[in-house]
């Protein structure tokens, strides 16, 4: 038996808060290979994957981007929209055709401000996602660069 991801929307947000967020969703599609966002660009939307796979990556000058994590159904794509200056800290690419729910960041931040319980629940969810992504980024960078440092 598989255990649901502890950061998927259904595992974290109550039915009420999920419904409130989803009432502002717009369905979008990304073809395989599409750049969803790039590091350093404006974070004015975020997505929840419906189907397909999105890869988060760290761009590196003169090198191929370092993949950090693959995201699937029910997972949040993007957290930079919640924190000023609202600029993407990573990049994201559709590794397969992706169907997703898209949300306008400004609208969702206004909803969070207007309803403290909703805002707290959504903020805690994004915080859990951020903590996991930070851990996975650290692990991936150690896996990528530690062997080279040891060989030097």
Task: Characterize the structure shown.
The strands form two sheets. This protein has a four-stranded antiparallel β-sheet. A four-stranded antiparallel β-sheet has the order 2-7-4-5. The model has no long low-confidence stretch (mean pLDDT 89). Helix 3 crosses helix 4. It starts with 8 loop residues before the first helix and ends with a helix. The chain is globular and about 55 Å long. 38% of the residues lie in helices and 29% in strands. By secondary structure, it is an alpha+beta fold.
Quick overview of this protein structure:
The protein has 152 residues and is of the alpha+beta class. The chain has helices at 9-12, 15-22, 105-114, 116-151, and strands at 26-30, 35-37, 45-51, 54-60, 63-71, 76-77, 91-94, 98-104. It has a four-stranded antiparallel sheet. Strands 2-7-4-5 form a four-stranded antiparallel sheet.
How far apart, in Å, are the first and last alpha carbons? 44 Å
Largest sheet: 4 strands, antiparallel
Low-confidence stretches: none
How do the helices and strands follow one another from N- to C-terminus?
A: HHEEEEEEEEHH
Average pLDDT, rounded to a whole number, is 89
The coarse silhouette is globular
| Individual helix count | 4
SSE-based structural type:
alpha+beta
According to DSSP, the number of beta strands is 8
What does the radius of gyration come to? 16 Å
The helix fraction, in percent, is 25-40%
């Amino acid at each position: 038996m598989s255990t649901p991801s502890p950061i998927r929307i259904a595992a974290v947000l109550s039915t009420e808060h999920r419904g409130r967020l989803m009432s502002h969703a717009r369905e979008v599609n990304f073809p395989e290979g599409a750049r969803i966002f790039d590091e350093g660009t404006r974070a004015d939307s975020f997505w929840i994957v419906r189907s397909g796979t999105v890869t988060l990556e760290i761009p590196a000058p003169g090198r191929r981007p370092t993949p950090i994590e693959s995201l699937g159904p029910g997972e949040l794509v993007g957290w930079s929209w919640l924190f000023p200056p609202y600029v993407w800290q990573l990049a994201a690419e559709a590794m397969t055709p992706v169907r997703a729910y898209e949300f306008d960041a400004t609208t969702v931040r206004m909803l969070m401000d207007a309803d403290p319980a909703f805002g707290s629940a959504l903020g805690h969810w994004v915080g859990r996602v951020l903590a996991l992504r930070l851990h996975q980024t650290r692990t991936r960078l150690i896996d990528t660069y530690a062997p080279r440092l040891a060989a030097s």
